[in-house]
Design brief:
Blueprint (H helix, E strand, L loop, with lengths): L2 H14 L6 H15 L6 H13 L14 E4 L6 H16 L7 E4 L11 E2 L9 E3 L5 E3 L4 H9 L14 E5 L2 E5 L8 E3 L14 E3 L3 E2 L2 E5 L2 E3 L4 E2 L2 E2 H8 L9 H8 L10 H19 L4 E2 L1 H17 L8 H4 L23 E4 L5
Parallel strand pairs: 1-2, 14-15
Antiparallel strand pairs: 2-13, 3-6, 4-5, 6-7, 8-9, 10-13, 11-12, 11-16
Helix pairs in contact: 1-2, 6-8, 7-8
The structure holds protoporphyrin IX containing FE (HEM) and ligand UGT.
């Protein structure tokens, strides 16, 4: 435990929240607790502020305009595998609404000296299974082939469709548990296109809520490795990556074929035309079902508004150009045409070392 990180965070909290009162008494309390126990306990106010600032500091996130509105579910007393799984399902229910998605984070028990925190092995709370077949091909999402094998080894059985929602795999107190995500906690959107009736026949769909569960929230020297957080999707994540990448659902050739495009040469830009129609379908389907989603043009404009506000507040807004610029029509969005400061600030969401 580095007490300097603790001190920096406590000072930041008091500087941005005068209502928290004088900083010295709280600093003395924190440093005394670190002396006695090797760590210290955030107040719920500090935890809430820390989770919101960690989002504000996320240099790869285009969606930071609403960083102050993050709902923080303080569940640090929950440290069993069953309890964690329960809280994840509750998180999905609270965040999903009936399509009006609310950005939220659930903070479970932190790492403490001699007490390893629980961990969720899934990358996200909702992921589609990827079944590896004899010939090496994958039915479903190839990105999740490894965790699908692990779940099958642990006795899980899916229905064998391309969109089987995986169970949660949670490790806590040396135990590994599998917990199905109840069907009614998983809102999905079947994909159709406003102009092409055949699109619905492709049988494509995607889940409404992206909820990251493989990152650790670090606040003032304390690590919360189990802190799943959700926002809403930007359409390109589904239409330009998850369904388009060759090593994901690889749908561009299929869409191009049905569009009647000439796929014999790259220079016909059949890939690009298929990409646009796939992304039109995603945005159209989510909007028609009343499920929150944002397009990359709107989100780019919002991000620059956020960045300008941050600079007016006298803060640096860290940003990583290579992640901020959308994977479709980059230069057609305003975030392409400028540079950013890619500094690393804390509090932060960091990638956890992989669980072996
Ligand atoms: C509310 C709507 C939000 C939108 C539209 C949004 C959008 C995005 C997008 C498009 C990415 C890049 C993902 C990729 O390329 O795979 C991203 C990255 C990220 N976002 Fe956001 N975001 C939102 C909310 C949030 C919230 C609530 C948090 C945390 C509290 C968050 C934290 C992050 C982090 C840490 C990354 C980088 C992940 C990594 O390094 O792997 N975002 N966001
Ligand atoms: N829209 C989102 N998108 C993502 C945000 C962070 C990470 C990811 C997934 O990143 C993976 C690793 C690199 N690309 C896929 C997606 C959100 C998820 C949770 C809150 S907002």
């Amino acid at each position: 435990m580095d007490w300097r990180e603790a001190e920096n965070f406590i000072r930041l909290h008091h500087a941005e929240n005068p209502v928290a009162g004088p900083v010295e008494p709280r600093l003395r309390e924190v440093l005394a607790e670190i002396d006695q126990t090797g760590t210290y306990t955030h107040t719920t106010g500090e935890l809430t502020f820390g989770a919101r600032v960690a989002w504000r500091n996320s240099n790869r996130c285009i969606g930071r305009l609403y960083w102050r509105s993050l709902q923080v579910r303080d569940r640090r007393h929950v440290d069993t595998a069953d309890g964690v799984a329960e809280e994840c399902v509750e998180h999905l229910r609270a965040a999903t609404g009936r399509g009006r998605i609310r950005p939220a984070i659930t903070v479970l028990a932190p790492d403490r000296p001699g007490e390893r925190a629980p961990r969720i092995l899934n990358d996200q709370l909702i992921r589609y299974a990827g079944y590896t077949r004899e010939d090496g091909s994958v039915l479903g999402d190839p990105a999740n082939a490894e965790i699908t094998k692990r779940a099958l080894r642990m006795g899980w059985r899916g229905e064998g469709t391309r969109f089987d929602v995986l169970p949660l795999v949670v490790e806590a107190k040396g135990a590994l548990v599998l917990r199905e995500v109840p069907h009614e906690a998983v809102l999905e959107v079947p994909l159709r296109h406003p102009a092409f009736p055949w699109f619905a026949d492709l049988g494509l769909k995607w889940h409404a809520v992206p909820a990251i569960s493989n990152m650790s929230l670090e606040i003032g020297g304390v690590a919360y490795p189990c802190a799943p957080f959700n926002g809403w999707y930007m359409g390109t994540e589904i239409g330009a990556r998850n369904l388009a990448d060759r090593d994901r659902y690889d749908q561009l050739p299929v869409v191009a074929e049905r569009l009647g495009l000439d796929t014999s040469h790259e220079r016909t830009l059949w890939r690009d035309q298929a990409l646009v129609e796939l992304n039109v379908a995603v945005l159209h389907s989510f909007a028609e079902d009343g499920v929150t989603i944002t397009d990359h043009h709107t989100e780019a404009r919002r991000f620059l508004t956020h960045l300008e506000r941050e600079e007016r507040s006298g803060r640096v807004c860290p940003a990583d150009w290579s992640w901020i610029v959308p994977p479709l029509s980059g230069a057609a969005t305003p975030v392409f045409h400028r540079y950013y400061d890619d500094v690393r600030l804390t509090p932060a969401y960091v990638h956890r070392p992989p669980v072996v």
